[in-house]
Amino acid sequence: MDIVDAATRSRMMSGIKGKNTKPEVSIRKALHARGFRYRIHVNNLPGKPDLVLPKYSAVVFVHGCFWHGHSCRYFKIPQTRPDFWREKIRKNQLRDKKQESSLLAGGWRVLVVWECAVRSRNKEKFALVIDLIAEWLINGNENSQIDENECSMIESATILKESQPNI
Ligand code: ZN
User: Which of 65, 86, 128, 139 has a CB 3.0–4.6 Å from the CB of 70, allowing a cystine?
Assistant: First the structure.
């Protein structure tokens, strides 16, 4: 089922594909405020990662859920020309995987932040995502991703922990 109208969809697609999209800029600013230094849109690395942090051997991609085919509630194949879109998104996913593999092979750690994780205007939620990114940069594994579900899980776990008495 198609839940967004044409205008919304065209906004989704144009906004999500381009560089310097809003979520990306907000993430960048927040990381900078926490003292992380990075380079942006480094052209000589596979996939032109949105943020490159050489000090942490890390690159960060901020992926739009539609364009990169994230299996979340924001991803819907448009009703018009569904096969065209399915194929297009499948190709994008394949390309993403390839680029990720090349980066990993080149000794980079790779983090994907899905747009659904930073879509909310809730400041606490956004700060949580930044916490997760910062933690990953410092202590994280080779390859990870942050999405809306993970954030809600951590959020409810934190609330649970805080509501329990200290033993
Ligand atoms: Zn998503």
Answer: 65
95-146 confidence digits (pLDDT tens): 999 999 999 999 999 999 999 999 877 888 899 999 999 999 999 999 999 9
Q: Which domain covers residue 144, as residue numbers?
A: 6-163
Q: How far is the CA of 165 from the centre of ligand 1 (A)?
A: 34
Instruction: For 33-69, write each residue's pLDDT tens digit.
Output: 999 999 998 889 999 999 999 999 999 999 999 999 9
Expressed in angstroms and rounded, the spacing between residue 166 Cα and the centre of ligand 1 is 35
Give SS3 for 113.
strand
150 alpha carbon to ligand 1 midpoint, in Å?
11
| Distance between Cα 167 and ligand 1 center (Å) | 37
- 1: in domain: no
Query: Domain holding 128: CATH number?
Result: 3.40.960.10
**Rounded to whole angstroms, how far apart are CA atoms 161 and 71?**
29
Give me ligand 1 centre to Cα 51, in Å.
19
Per the structure, how many domains does the chain have? 1
Question: Ligand 1 mean position to 119 CA, how many Å?
Answer: 9
**What beta strand segments (E) does the chain contain?**
39-40, 51-53, 58-63, 109-114, 143-146
